[in-house]
Amino acid sequence: MATILHKAATRGHAYHGWLNSWHTFSFAGYYDPTRIHFGALRVLNDDTVDGGMGFGRHPHDNMEIISIPLEGNLEHQDNTGTRQVIRQGDVQVMSAGTGIVHSEKNEDAKQPVKFLQIWVIPNQKNVKPRYDQTTFSEQDKHNKLQVVVSPIGAKEGVNIYQNAWFSLGKLDKGIELEYAVKEQGNGVYAFLLDGEVTINNIPLDRRDGLGITDENKLTIQATTDAEILLMEVPMA
Prior knowledge:
This protein is mostly beta strands. It folds into two domains: 12-135, Jelly Rolls (Sandwich); 138-234, Jelly Rolls (Sandwich), CATH 2.60.120.10. It is built from one helix and 22 strands. The longest helix has 4 residues, at 138-141. It is globular, with a radius of gyration of 17 Å. The two termini are 17 Å apart.
């Protein structure tokens, strides 16, 4: 087993007045040559956007972009005429493919929205742009690892153009779960949203990240009530 631990305080940070963003991997003005990506996982941004504010129209192409709201509502609009609102409990993917121009805005004029923006390098280029969105209840994630993202054609969660699986778990103190890696050669990047856990006996605190490779099974123990996101991705 090989591991890489990213403590929360070591992430890149950008504050733009209306946007408070923490970058696990190099992004925009934050660059660390040792933290470009973890396999196909290219971006993991932990963003807070003030009420009524947001990202203006901007382009993407050939990237799988996953948005997971943690608090509040986020509105997406794009140049195809699509308008969607994602809320806490939702998971949305945008396959940028041949190219799309979109904007993201906090739907609430007063309360901040907190969300994860995650980019995964696709295994197919120049696909037709698409959205997919699913809502998961708290019960879906309670003391288990609920698959929320899976490859195109799979039947769990939203689908992306990559042999990757994301799972969310909301664990009570003392719960122990096992995660079996789904595809040989994949690695798993764990991001602890809240609480304290150990993964294969490595302790994690809130907003810590842990990459694990060359291992087929993870044992997760909740030291406190905790919420965790696992991202299994190809490493090559």
